[in-house]
Amino acid sequence: MKEVSIIGLDLAKNVIQAHGAAPDGSVVFRRKLSRGQLLKFFADQAPCTVAMEACAGAHHWARAIRSLGHEVKLIAPAYVKPFVKRQKNDAADAEAIAEAASRPTMRFVEPKSEAQQAAAMAYRTRDLLVRQRTQTINALRAHLAEFDLVVPTGITHVGRLAAFVEGDESGLPEAATALGRMLVDQIEMLGSQIEALDKELRVRASADDTARRLMTIPGVGPITAAALTTFAPPAQTFTKGRDFAAWVGLTPRQHSSGGKGRLGKTSKMGQRNIRRLLIIGAVAVVRWAARKGAPEGSWLARMIDRKPRMLVAVALANRMARVAWALMRNGGEYRDPALAAQ
C-alpha cells in the first residue's frame, strides 16, 4: 500500500468518511468509520496530516487526533466547496477536504482548547438570551398595542409595559392580564440570567491580561474584549492589522477586473460577533464625540465633519480592529495619538 500523506475527514453524527491520499495526490483508501472506530483507526495509522472542515465537533476531534501524534488542520467549509467534483456525497466531500488541505496557499482555522470553547459557549448563551428577551419584549408590546396601550420600543420602557399589565386602569381583560404577567415574568427571568452572564464575562475579562489591555481601547468593553480573546485566532496568524480587519469583515468587498479597482460595501466575512461588537462600540464613541466634541484636528473630528455618522462608525471599527491586533500581537496598552504626540 502507498504511504498516506493526508487524510480528509467528512464529519457527521454517526458515520464519518475518511479519504486517504498519497503525496502525489492519488487515492490510497476510502473508508467509512463510526464514531467509536475513529480514534482506534488513527491510533493504528502512521503520523500524517489530518484535515477536517471547521464544523460542529471538529475542535474536539482535532484535539483527540492531535494527541495521537498527527498534524491536524481545520478548514473553513467555504474554502472546501470549490474542490467538490460534480455529485455531492460523503466520499466526494472527504476527497475535497484532503485536496483543499494540500494546497500551499490554503488558510486554516486554529483548533480551540476546551477552555476557549467554554468561553465561547458563555458568550453565545448570553447572545441567545438577549435575543430571546428582545423577542419577548416586542411580543408583549405588540399584544398591548392591540388594546390601544402603546409603548415606545427599547428595553428602557419595559417598566411601562409591566405597569400596564399590573395596573387596573389599563382595562385589560383578565385572560390578557394573566398572559401579560407570564411574559413579564419571562422578561425578568431572562434579565437576571443575562446579568449573571455579564458578571461572569466581566470577571473573565478582568482576570485575563490580554482582555484588560484591550479594554484600554475606547469603545472596547468587557464583552468585546472577551469576544476578541475567545473567537479571534492567534494574532501571529496575520502579518498586519489590515489582514485582521479584513478577516473580521470590516474592509470593502472587491469586484475588480482588468486593472480597474471596484470596491463595494463591507465584506462581512470572518467572525460576525466581533464585527458587530466593534461597530456597536464605535457607534458609541462617535455619538460621544459628536456631543462632546472630538479633539481638534484629529482623524475622528475630520471624519465627523465630512462623512455620515454610520460610515464614520464602521471606519472607526476598522481602526479599532487594527489596534486590537497590535495589542494582542505586541503587548502594551492603547495610547491616544493626540496624547502621544505631546
How does this structure look, described?
- The protein has 342 residues and is of the alpha/beta class.
- The protein folds into 3 domains: 6-101, ATPase, nucleotide binding domain (Nucleotidyltransferase, domain 5), CATH 3.30.420.40; 114-207; 213-254 and 269-335, no CATH class.
- It is 55% helix and 11% strand.
- It is built from 14 helices and 7 strands.
- The strands form 2 sheets. It has a 5-stranded mixed β-sheet with strand order 3-2-1-4-5, with helices on both faces. Strands 6-7 form a two-stranded antiparallel ribbon.
- Helix 2 (58-66) links the parallel strand 4 (49-53) and strand 5 (71-75).
- The radius of gyration is 25 Å and the shape is globular.
- The mean pLDDT is 89.
What labels would you give this structure?
55% helix; 11% strand; globular; single chain; 342 residues; alpha/beta; two-stranded antiparallel sheet; Nucleotidyltransferase, domain 5; 3 domains; five-stranded mixed sheet; 7 strands
Quick overview:
By secondary structure, this protein is an alpha/beta fold.
List the SSEs and their pairings.
Blueprint: E1 6-10, E2 15-21, E3 27-34, H1 35-43, E4 49-53, H2 58-66, E5 71-75, H3 77-80, H4 90-101, H5 114-145, H6 158-166, H7 174-207, H8 209-214, H9 222-231, H10 241-248, E6 252-254, E7 263-266, H11 272-292, H12 299-306, H13 309-330, H14 337-340
Parallel strand pairs: 1-4, 4-5
Antiparallel strand pairs: 1-2, 2-3, 6-7
Helix pairs in contact: 5-7, 5-9, 6-7, 7-9, 9-11, 10-13, 11-13
